[in-house]
Amino acid sequence: MFSAEAAGARPRLWVRSLDHMDARQLAGTEDAQDPFWSPDSRWIGFFADGRLKKVPANGGAAQVIAETVTDFRGATWGPEDTILFGGGRQPILSVNAAGGSTTPVTVSCSTGVQR
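RE: above sequence
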């Protein structure tokens, strides 16, 4: 799985089976960044349009999981269907893969030095 753009198009997610040479685009994944797999490999999570989203790995409609920041720094999908994700100087957040409210799991960094 990777994010790439076809000539003249916006970036999208692409998937390729290890036993095939051809990759296929996943619809509804325009402007996808920083993709990651679900533990069962049935879903792909990604960031796009200021949102954390997921799409079935076999294709289908993309679903919004949470509103996020625009400075994406990656995510991981745990076995309990919990996704941890972060952005810039913001705390790492947790959200259920089905969607809902986010919960901080760390504290934000200090942006200045006190004298």
